[in-house]
Amino acid sequence: MKNLHHANIVIGKENCRNFVFNILLNDLNFNIKANPDFLLMEKEFLGIDDARDLERWVIGKPLIGEIKVSLIIVGSITDQAQNALLKVLEEPPMGTYIFINLENLGGLLATFLSRVRILKIPAISEKVEKSVDNLGLKFLNSDINTRFNLVCSLLKNKDKTPMKELIKSLEEIAYKNYSKNLTVNIAETKAMKNILTAKIFVSTRGSSPKMLLEWLSCML
Fold it and tell me: 3-class SS at 119?
């Protein structure tokens, strides 16, 4: 992404973190891990006190480098908070980048929008979805060693979305076969249950898609 703006609104909740983290690595060579110059804030709504806290953080100097980044994930921003952030969004210190994640632009003031760049998280294309479905079929029809190799190949991508989508694909494929088969046996029922368990856990914060796929490799 060329000419990265200092203040950005990221629209869309799905895969927000990976979207922003990829921008930071590719455009700024900025790694968030154990980095005191990275601020992550998650709230249902951003109020005036939160805005003032963010303003104080922004005007402070970086601790270990020349770049500071904040990712604010919120459901909405109050009008007071938006007005309080106008100056910070317009002229933050050099090397400071702000990303605010919202589901949509509803409720944002025109003066607020005029100071930010709008970034939209791209949806997974149909081509990618088809590729994931094919990978799901290959996973189900392979032996355990091949399954582990497939998981390892997905690990080369820093984005965990393909692994999550693979688990979703496994569930969809298994459900189609399950619903079509009038003589479902115990093994098929157990397989369906395991896939659904993995799907539930992969959506929880801090889960490891890699570990869940390795577990499925052994259980299916």
Answer: strand
SS3 at position 58 = helix
d(CA 28, CA 7): 14
The correct CATH number of 7-120 out of 3.40.50.300, 3.40.50.150, 3.50.30.20, 3.40.50.1370 is 3.40.50.300
> How many CB atoms are closer than 10 A to CB 81?
20
- Please provide the DSSP assignment of 164-216 as one string: HHHHHHHHHHHHHHHHH-TT--HHHHHHHHHHHHHHHHHTSTT--HHHHHHHH
Helices 48-59 and 79-90 cross at an angle (nearest 10°) of 10
pLDDT in tens, 155-213: 777 677 778 888 888 877 776 665 454 444 566 677 778 888 887 887 777 788 888 88
∠ CA 83-85-86, rounded to 5° = 70
- What would the pLDDT profile of 97-110 be if each residue is shown by its tens digit? 999 999 888 889 99
Predicted TM-score (pTM) above 0.90: no
